Amino acid sequence: MIKKNHIMYWSPSLVNIATNKAVINSAISLKKYEKIYDCTLLNFFGEHNMSRKEVEKNGVKLQNCFSNTISNFLPRHGKIKSRISFIFMVLFSFFPLKKTIKKQKPDYLIIHLLTSLPLFLLLIFDFKTKFILRISGLPKLNFLRKKLWQLAFKKIYCVTCPTEATMNYLKSLNIIEEKKLKLLHDPIINVSKYSKKKLKIKDFKLNFESYYLAAGRLTRQKNFLFLCEAFNEILKKYPEEKLLIAGEGEDKLKLENFIKKYKLEKSIFLIGYKEEILKYFSISKGFILSSLWEDPGFVLIEAAMTRTFILSSDCPNGPKEIIKDRKNGILFKSNDKDFFLKQFEILKNLDRKKNKDILLNNLLYAKKFTIFNHFKILSKILKIN
Questions:
Q1: Is 295 helix (H, G, I), strand (E, B) or coil?
Q2: Closest Cα partner for 358 from 326, 381, 318?
Q3: Considering the entire predicted model, what is its pTM?
Q4: Collapsing DSSP states into helix, strand and coil, what is residue 159?
Q5: Least reliable range by pLDDT among 12-16, 181-185, 189-193, 359-363
Q6: C-alpha distances in angstroms, 269 versus 203, 288, 341, 369?
Q7: Predicted local distance difference test score (pLDDT) of residue 71
């Protein structure tokens, strides 16, 4: 009998975010394309509850923890409150995570969110498990975090980066051996699943006919307050336009207050996290990404797969690497309102029929982010095949 290799994933969170989707798709890809993997998703705070059926249907194990029950009592919104929640999450998780690794001895632990905790455990304990740090965004390194990485990276198996720019950035820091750095595109697109969803798109309708779409966590990174301010200027010239923002996060109250202050309730809509986001992409007039940084930008790839025209900031690292102005999207200078308004005019007046090449080029690039391509690279990293 062939020995199965146990891969465990750690990605604790209190809100639905794109990283959790990537974690699930990664585990599913290993189970789908190779029979020698046992994959377990650690479900410490209920982060995978909504996807339980999909996870178990694909043969991936979902392992709950006692702290799952406390997630309802931890605040999810507000910058200070969410930071307090993160501290509690680390404290509650320390011993359960240590015990899980010691007892179950997975061959690999792939860590995605709240990575400081497993890296600290790696540093102070001797585990047989190989740790893989998956960089899920352009890293912001303060002194303590950089020091932790320097020490933990001496024991880590490898670090995966979603873009070449991020990998080059980590190389420039000289805190890890180059051979431990790997380029691994996120498993954003499950082609078979996308095809099934595509069939349902025609039946999807809203109370108004057209809108522009933005999506992501409601955080400073996504820069949605800038987008709302800019869209307020757009409405002075085009009062009929609508903007939908899909997502949850700590800046929700701040955005709601802005919308109320300027009486934009009939023009800008916070619609919350949407599991079936492809439907919203497919019938929008365009997707707008206003982020200050992304790596790579899940929503960019999803917009590309639904053949949606994109207006994106040129922030590092994903958008700058993925979107080429007028070739597969439209770029504006990050956080520059005047530049944004100028580029929005181009998006609004774009002749869709004459610019089909923009959509095709974006679709071709997006195919790098399928779960099959992710599996091929990850299986080589694991050195199991």
A1: coil
A2: 326
A3: 0.79
A4: strand
A5: 189-193
A6: 21, 14, 20, 29
A7: 67
Q: How many CA atoms lie within 13 A of 15 on its CB side?
A: 23
Identity of residue 170: L
| 272 contacts 245 by C-beta, under 8 angstroms | no
State both tokens at 268: 């800008």
Asked if residues 253 and 225 have their Cβ atoms less than 8 Å apart, the reply is no
* Residue type for position 271: I
What is the C-alpha to C-alpha distance for residues 139 and 149, in angstroms, rounded to an integer?
11
Output the six-digit token pair for 24: 């699930």
- Which pLDDT score, from 0 to 100, does residue 77 have? 64
Residue 82, SS3 per DSSP:
helix
CA-closest candidate to residue 246, choices 227, 263, 269: 269
Spatial distance between the Cα atoms of 287 and 309, rounded to a whole number of angstroms: 6
Residue recorded with tokens 């365009």: 286
Cis? peptide before 317, omega within 30° of 0: yes
Q: At what angle do helices 356-366 and 298-305 cross, to 10 degrees?
A: 120
- Amino acid identity of residue 45, one-letter, is F
Classified as helix, coil or strand, 52 is: helix
Identify the CA nearest to 136 among candidates 294, 16, 9, 284: 294
Cα 253 versus chain centre, distance = 22
